[in-house]
Design brief:
single chain; mainly alpha
Amino acid sequence: MTDDTITISPGPRFRTAMMLAVLADALQVVVFPLFVAGAASPADDILDFAVGAMMVHLLGWQWEFLPSFLAKLVPGVDLVPFWTMAVANVYRKSKRIAVATEESREQHPELKDPQRS
C-alpha cells in the first residue's frame, strides 16, 4: 500500500526568514525600547527597512510583508511581532498552494500524445 500524503517541510530560505523575523521582532520588543526613546526611532526604522529587504530577497515579494512594514511605522503597534506573523503566513500560503497543485495533478493526469503511441 502506498502512502499518498504530502509532506511539505520548510526549506532553508523559510527557516532563515523565520529566524530573521523572530530576531527582528525580539529586538524591537525587548532591546530597542530600553535604549531608544520613543517609537519614532531611526534604529527601529532602519531595522524594518533591512528586514523588509531581506524578506523580499529570501522569499520574494509577498503582499504579507507590506502591512507588516507599514504597521511597524505606527507608534505602539511596533510591539506586535508582525514580521514573524508575515513569514508564518507566507509559509502557510505556500503550503496550501502546494497541496492544491498536488491535488490538481492527481485529478488531471497527463494526457498521452496520440502521435507518439
